[in-house]
Amino acid sequence: MNESEKSSAGRASRALIFLLAGLTAALAIWGGYHYWRSSQYRRVVESGYRRAVQEAAVSLSNISTDLVKGMYSGTPAQLSQVSAKLWKEASGAKSAISVLPLAQLHLDKTNQFLSQVGDYAMYLSRTSLSGEAPSFEEQENFRKLREYAERLSDAIDELDDELERGEITVAEIQSLLERGVDTDDIDETLPTVVTDTSLDAMEGGFSGYPTLIYDGPFSDHILSRQPNINSSALVDVDTARSIAQRAVGNTTELPYQREESSNLPCWVFYGADCSVAISKHGGRLCYLLRSKPDDIEERITAQDAVSAARNYLNQQGYGNMKESYYEIDDGIITINFAQSEGDVLCYTDLIKVAVSMEDGTILSCDARGWLVNHKERNLPAPTLSAEDAAKALSTQLTRQGSRLALIPTLGEDEVLCWEFDCEGSAGDHVLVYVNTQNGNEEQILLLIEDEDGTLTK
Question: N or C: which terminus of the chain carries fewer CB neighbours within 10 A?
Fold first, then answer.
């Protein structure tokens, strides 16, 4: 082979090497791209499954709560309202569970249970139109359904926790089930949520059932309407700054400010470790936020903290506030206060205060509920006495006490009620609100109490 031929062969060889290298690189890029796309797809699918689990958990928790309220409903109107919510939540839970790739678990009875909860709710809603109060049998059915709902809710909560901790993915559960894992050995390969203690056991356990502050009660309404304070006179920024200075303590400098435009316009000031908002209308403290201290040591009692919060509210011009419910978390107690007008507790006029249980320092104050809803009122005298209004209570409730309370309605109005503090036949702590004028059962709340405070559902 002459030199020219050798040179041509060398060039051809190098070209082939470059071509193969280029193809290899292209294949690597193509493979990497598709692996990335596949990974992205798996993450999207897994995220969808996680959302379905969380939606099912919320719906099942609401079903459990609504079944309790149904058990303690004393009037047809309240039963109809609870039944409508039950039907909605049962449909939501069934829809969410159907998204999960758990067909191999054969959750037929679970789905049947959810379907029957919805159907039973619709049946009760229709029968309540006749004006008949819930029967003893219907209340017992609610009790039985509640037991199964709570078990199913616990199972879904456990699945959500295990997915959150990364102990297993929904895709891994599906893969194991598709490979035909023996149900006798399933507890060794799958999380407990699909073993004999949870969803799998739920299927075998559905027999004998008939063919449910932290904001404290009534707080979701606080910014859903035009604030009443907006009818008050405007204050300028310098006046607002002096009010803010008093709210955080006169030793704190507040050199910076901005305007907050919302339904409740405010002047907002910032210090080294805090922010405070003063309403432009009326110049009232809207909210205060301080940096949370690290490692709070609880040195004062809850009662001392409540007293510190009440004194602070008095200093800011919020008098006649009465504490209702509270929660303790990491050394901070958050207390709900409501306006007291004579012997009426106005849950519509809500203020939340957070206090350090180390030294009683006010860490936050949110008065937006009060600013939105407080007004001069001419409350009617009750037409019904507490004794007469108590006739609306379910026979499943034992009355412990009563007082007058103003609560919001779904239509953003207010209604004066007798608040009955009751014990349920199943040991629940229940608040029932009965209209003082017509005896209608307006609302039922469950009190959840432990060493860290009192919540409502």
Answer: N
With beta carbons less than 8 A apart as the criterion, state whether 346 and 379 touch.
Answer: no
Q: Indicate the average pLDDT of the chain.
A: 76
Q: For 268-300, give one letter per residue: b (16+ CB within 10 A) or e.
A: bbbbeebbbbbbbbbbbbbbbbbeebeebeeeb
Query: How does strand 321-329 pair with strand 266-270?
Result: unpaired
pLDDT at 41 over 60: no
Q: By mean pLDDT, which of 232-236, 309-313, 416-420 is the weakest?
A: 232-236
- Residue 189 reports pLDDT greater than 50: no
Contacts of 209 (CB under 8 A, 6+ apart): 113, 116, 144, 145, 147, 148
Q: Is 75 exposed, middle or buried (0-12, 13-18, 19+ CB in 10 A)?
A: buried
Strand partners, 350: 338
CA distances from 390 to 234, 335, 359, 430 (A): 46, 29, 43, 14
Annotate 409-447 with DSSP letters as a single string: -TTS-EEEEEEEEEEETTS-EEEEEEETTT--EEEEEEE
C-alpha R_g of the chain? 30
Element (H, E) at 161: helix 136-164
CA pair distance 289, 266, nearest whole angstrom: 14
Q: How far apart are CA 300 and CA 27, in angstroms?
A: 68
DSSP 8-state symbol, 392: G
Q: Read out DSSP for 7-19?
A: HHHHHHHHHHHHH
Q: Write out 265-313 in H/E/C secondary structure.
A: CEEEEECCCEEEEEECECCCEEEEEECCCCCCCCCCCHHHHHHHHHHHH
DSSP letter assigned to residue 194: G
CA distance 280 to 278: 6
Q: β-pairing, 397-408 with 344-356? A: parallel
Contact 430, 445 (CB under 8 A): yes
DSSP reduced 3-state for 124: helix
- The answer for residues whose C-beta is within 8 angstroms of residue 192's C-beta and 6 or more apart is 158, 162, 198
User: Is the CB of residue 335 less than 8 Å from the CB of residue 305?
Assistant: yes
Closest alpha carbon to 425 in 67, 137, 71 = 71
Instruction: Report the alpha-carbon distance of residue 242 to residue 240 in Å, rounded.
Output: 5
Name the more confident of 94 and 47.
Answer: 94
Return the residue matching tokens 């609560």: 407
